[in-house]
Amino acid sequence: MTKQEYLSRTIEHLDLNTFNPVTLVDGMDAMAFQARNLSRAAQIYDRMLGDQETCVYLTLAGSLISAGLKKVIVQLLENNMVDAIVSTGANIVDQDFFEALGFKHYVGTPFVDDTKMRELMIDRIYDTFIDEEDLRICDDVIGHICNHVLERRPYTSREFIVEMGRFLESDEKYAPYRKDSIVYTAYKKGVPIFCPAFSDCSAGFGFVMHRNDNPTGPHVTIDTAGDFWELTQTKLRNPESGLLMIGGGVPKNFIQDVVVATEVIGQDAPMHKYAIQITVADERDGALSGSTLKEACSWGKVDVVYEQMVFSEATVALPLIAGYGYHKKSWVGRPERRFNDIFEKAPVAR
Amino acid sequence: MTKQEYLSRTIEHLDLNTFNPVTLVDGMDAMAFQARNLSRAAQIYDRMLGDQETCVYLTLAGSLISAGLKKVIVQLLENNMVDAIVSTGANIVDQDFFEALGFKHYVGTPFVDDTKMRELMIDRIYDTFIDEEDLRICDDVIGHICNHVLERRPYTSREFIVEMGRFLESDEKYAPYRKDSIVYTAYKKGVPIFCPAFSDCSAGFGFVMHRNDNPTGPHVTIDTAGDFWELTQTKLRNPESGLLMIGGGVPKNFIQDVVVATEVIGQDAPMHKYAIQITVADERDGALSGSTLKEACSWGKVDVVYEQMVFSEATVALPLIAGYGYHKKSWVGRPERRFNDIFEKAPVAR
Amino acid sequence: MTKQEYLSRTIEHLDLNTFNPVTLVDGMDAMAFQARNLSRAAQIYDRMLGDQETCVYLTLAGSLISAGLKKVIVQLLENNMVDAIVSTGANIVDQDFFEALGFKHYVGTPFVDDTKMRELMIDRIYDTFIDEEDLRICDDVIGHICNHVLERRPYTSREFIVEMGRFLESDEKYAPYRKDSIVYTAYKKGVPIFCPAFSDCSAGFGFVMHRNDNPTGPHVTIDTAGDFWELTQTKLRNPESGLLMIGGGVPKNFIQDVVVATEVIGQDAPMHKYAIQITVADERDGALSGSTLKEACSWGKVDVVYEQMVFSEATVALPLIAGYGYHKKSWVGRPERRFNDIFEKAPVAR
Amino acid sequence: MTKQEYLSRTIEHLDLNTFNPVTLVDGMDAMAFQARNLSRAAQIYDRMLGDQETCVYLTLAGSLISAGLKKVIVQLLENNMVDAIVSTGANIVDQDFFEALGFKHYVGTPFVDDTKMRELMIDRIYDTFIDEEDLRICDDVIGHICNHVLERRPYTSREFIVEMGRFLESDEKYAPYRKDSIVYTAYKKGVPIFCPAFSDCSAGFGFVMHRNDNPTGPHVTIDTAGDFWELTQTKLRNPESGLLMIGGGVPKNFIQDVVVATEVIGQDAPMHKYAIQITVADERDGALSGSTLKEACSWGKVDVVYEQMVFSEATVALPLIAGYGYHKKSWVGRPERRFNDIFEKAPVAR
């Protein structure tokens, strides 16, 4: 098979308007196991949307955007169903920003010879293919932004991602693609996106280029301590909060830690009042990704009244949970938080 | 039960000198399933230690240090069986540095009421307990280092962790504890430790304190882009490389990406020649942690001649794999790489 | 809490008429990971229903009936969407027949003290409760059927389960409950149910009672070799076949082995043409439950053109897959197979 | 590659005499997660061996014998460290009896084209290969035993497996192979082996042949109800009991149910006093295999004082646990139970 044949069918993003899972999810409430857990999680999400005092943090870990969940998340943003995002870098840069530049992901298969994929410059994410030549262009764009658009100073990842949104707005050639972009929609809606490990993705390659192109400093740098400070400010601005966590990893830990951060600076904000997590990890290896929300309570991070773990792969569970929240419409009238405005006057990262 | 009763039995770290698993691991080679995979992984680790051209990167994700694996990793460091470490922040700060300050982890149980734990200020990691009052002191020490020891400028996480080692050396009251510390041993041996998401742990609380104590900048900041640049320099210094990965997450991604980073700046280093990963994650959710090393080959990151996934919880598998490498002694005569010396003259992060 | 309080909310069975997942499942087809796998599995199920030559075997492992999936399976039976069932004993006797006697399962929680449950005679299945006093009555009914209804001779499990259906029909007091029963619906529709490990459930207790009550033989016995013979006859009667497998275990193995059985007696039937399995198990421990359908191909059991594993807990995935098949209506006009009629004249088990 | 090349390296069985894991396992006791669980499980196994009142039931599920664990289990039998076995059929017939006939399993790989394997008549178990032509001979031997050795009457699986042992003894050509056989060693030691789903393996093919060769009855049949009765008798003979469970499935359920069976016939035996299970399954799908031993307590089957789940693939964990028990030598002086003698006078199955 040729490269073109491998890259012949594109991933299409699911649209919450094409299905309504409310009766199904409600029917799962009196079942057992993960159906009941999923139903309860959906109800908690709906409840937090209806609780006008509560801001909603969404965390993203795992290859969610390449898997067809981009539009779902954009729809949550557009309808004020999410007020801030904490994500791994790959979802935001390699996958969302990548598609906003006009590139695509492709339906693939795990049953291939990876050495052949390497020769063809096709990158594989389980059953999904990416044209590595496209991805290199994405790296270059980040390098270009560092070299030619930004000041040579520390940026938080949030601040940098705002600039990525601004970049997409700056050139009309991106217009057909940016409208379905998380980075761009969040930029327009003032929703902050934090990537606490921002070098750990295509952005990292851009930063390495930037440094290589500019052997002497100062450089554009990413201030991860500033990220945590900024995230803490959002929690102080809107103390009541709920978590919709997809996967675990750094995003889960980061958003949970923010409660402790407010204590550390003597401005105790309450524990996260609502918390749901979709994950396939379990608790028995003691790792953070599968640790229960009850365990998080021992750390003072999450309250246990409205918490629910859902043991499911995200591409199956998120459409049901997000679709439930969307079609129940408790979010109608929910205000925009525009947390990005907090940081507009002066950069935090320095 | 009182807090003192809950915190009555300490976690003790396994010592590679107390057991020799070589005949067991060799016997597993002609078995099947994970026994055979584990045996093959141990042989690959032994092989990379015997290949004098190859530098060894160790990645740490999951709560490994609190689980009793600290001494094993210190022994790998002491015997030049590891040349650089990429880790989650918690292993390095909340767990290793924490114990180097004189604190302990405790044998606990998952079968407790977490709301009671919260009241007692006992933090739980699955079946392990931590005194949160101790952990707050650890946060304070990081804040103190920021406020009083360091210059107000960007640091890479590696550079900051070197300073944590120097701090442990600066006060003899830490002498009884620091000798078994990863941070301290790496500091003495010139072995770099990278935490690409360095705010995502107790260090983050220290940084928040520092900013709160010093409302106007400049601040000590953490330059995660600089981390990736520095890691890339180690790969360029010693192009042949092998990976011993415990868990997945950011550390796995970060060290794999370094190969691409060398290409991006036109100095193509070879793929990682050897790679083993211990994980309970599987590939079917498309997330990075469970993605196979064959998949990494499609990305041009890992060669497939000597690669092996081991599906096992790390506290069981690492003693066998590290113990095999240790007792086979192929590492005898292996040189110190002292990668930290590369960066000694001038700070990279700026 | 009292026993009554623990047993206050009953499990309610999901009804395929209350939701239509077709657009959702179709939308998952161009996504990735398990969404795509689930979509493909649903399409394969729809395809096998539309292939009039093909008979459909359903396998059940795991606590599916107590979890609220009983009505879904009854609806598959009623609409000729399943032609034979192979199951663990618990689903058929402890859960379905149990409810047909008028008993209920209850919404519970895993966060209880099991020693207290034992004292209250409440049996727990993860998050579901059962009144053990009810279950003992179910055991007694099986003992009664052995002692007073049946001949003292070997029965296949299929034959015995037909008698359980007849028993439910014999007394009008079961009328309100039996209409939603798998055992009863299958009895009326002539659909055989095989439990290859039939003692491994409440039935086993009935058999033990029967033997205890009748110290000298002959006894009602269960001929598991006869089960395999009978199952083989169904495959010979209708050689083209498809598999809808929920969980793995003995039912999965049993129905796959039937292909080899036809070869062993020189009447080679084709491999199963279609096969889908919903499971959370993975292949890395070499156990049957998680073994891939491709692996089954090496054994000559399953063809690989239309096969799909779905990594999901069944309470979440089955409603989507069965609901897709139901609402696509390719089953309209599909004939009843009434495999039970093959065995009507003379008992096989002897 | 030719068939011969695929089948060139045989699986070799691990020998408990070649390694001593006692210090390693003891060192794991003050660690966390599965290391601590494994250590505690090993200590419980050692404790039940030292408790002279307690009989030990071993359960086997998963492809353990083909994976190289045969000799370990034979060594447990030889040293009176196991008093009865409940197993899936495949371990006993397709794998152990198969090797006792002189056949072998082969080191393979999951990375093959299974349609090619089918053409070559190579059966695959994850990373292990079997010559299907050998396996067909094994089926034939079972058919031969039914046709020519046994009476035409119901047998329990236990009784049948005793006959398989006797068959191995009857011909000196099996002498080189039978000495390492579980079936043969158990036969010599009077240790019963129960396979509650005895048709669900190579034996099933033998039974189908037998029926096909003898169209009119009576036939050799397998009485699974009799199995449960016999198993119950062993519990009544020696009421104090402990469980060493490898994997879950039917064997786990069957041995746990035996406690209830004694109650059902009014001869209440105590719950299993000790219980350990090695499994990769977890509890969140509500299936039996991953259900916790605490959950089993709610059913009155297992006591909770000495119970331990170990989350590990068996080929890694069993050598450590069995090796610990073996080298601690608490079994020295433990009597043979010879449960088979209970049933010698008259067959139960009828």
Fold and architecture overview:
The structure is a homotetramer of 350-residue chains. Chain A is an alpha/beta fold and 350 residues long. The first copy, chain A, is built from 15 helices and eleven strands. In chain A, the strands form three sheets. In chain A, strands 7-2-1-9-10-11 form a six-stranded parallel sheet, sandwiched between helices. A three-stranded antiparallel sheet of chain A has the order 3-5-4. In chain A, helix 4 (65-78) links the parallel strand 1 and strand 2. In chain A, helix 5 crosses helix 7 (132-149). The first copy, chain A, is globular, with a radius of gyration of 20 Å. The first copy, chain A, starts with a helix and ends in a 22-residue tail after the last helix. The A-C interface holds A 9-15, 18-19, 21, 23-24, 27-28, 30-36, 38, 63, 66-69, 105, 107, 125-128, 311-317, 319-320, 323 and C 9-15, 18-19, 21, 23-24, 27-28, 30-36, 38, 63, 66-69, 105, 107, 125-128, 280, 311-317, 319-320, 323.
What's the rounded overall pLDDT mean of chain A?
A: 96
Structural class of chain A: alpha/beta
Radius of gyration of chain A: 20 Å
> How would you characterize the largest beta sheet of chain A?
6 strands, parallel
Q: Give the strand tally of chain A.
A: 11
What is the N-to-C succession of helices and strands of chain A? HHHEHEHEHEEHEHHHEHEHEHEHEH
Low-confidence stretches of chain A: none
Strand order of the largest sheet of chain A: 7-2-1-9-10-11
Protein chain pair with the most extensive contact, residues per chain: A-B, 84 and 84 residues
Cα separation of the termini of chain A: 51 Å
Oligomeric state of the chains?
homotetramer
Percent helix range of chain A: 40-55%
Shape of chain A: globular
Q: Please count the helical segments of chain A.
A: 15
